[in-house]
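Readers outside the structure-tokenisation community will struggle with the description of the input data as it stands. I therefore recommend that a typical entry be quoted early in the introduction. An entry of this sort, consisting of the sequence and the corresponding backbone structure tokens, reads as follows:
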Amino acid sequence: MIKAQNLKYQIPYGAIILDDINFEIGKGEFVGLLGHNGSGKTTLMDLIMGFRGITSGSLEVLGEDPHSLIRERKKEISFISQDVVIKGNITIADFLKFHSILYPQYSKSAEEYFLDVFKLSSETKVATLSLGQQRKVQIIAGLSSKAKLILIDEITAVLDPETRETFFIELKKYQLENDATIVLATNIAEDLLLRADRVLFIRSGKVSIHSPDEILKLFNIEKVA
């Protein structure tokens, strides 16, 4: 689903953010992207989405160059991000309708299900929503898209504990029911415990690959009994 070989990204005329990155993510995997603030998690997500061009090396997403203007499989990717801003003068229904246009396989029945699960009314104006509720709207859109690759960038920090648990339950169900690949970037190590199949840990521009039971050690966190 995603393959990086000797991937390097350097800010134009600036610092090297990612250097000689190598990894592969297969179909149906749940992979965590972990690192401290500023480590390069969002930069890697931007490269995968094609928002930035790589400096050297290679990157393939669903067998395509993510920075290419011609991408036949982009509709199979859904992106849920802390950086997405929803205009406040529209309703949730308006946003979801616009989002559905981008995905031929979009499921209206799934949308209704997730609206109920996350306790939101489609007629509610986005301007009245808290930041956590706006993230719920993105989650509903992302999971209703029926995409094969779900990319999630740093959204869990603003979710309350109950919503966060519900989110991960529904995400796991989605992964299994759709044989989907999930890539979740976070700086909250606990988000990935007992959930991720593997973890890509970014530190000093390098990526190392770990099993979930190594996560706490990466952040020097002692597991509470």
Q: What stands out?
A: The two ends are 37 Å apart (CA to CA).
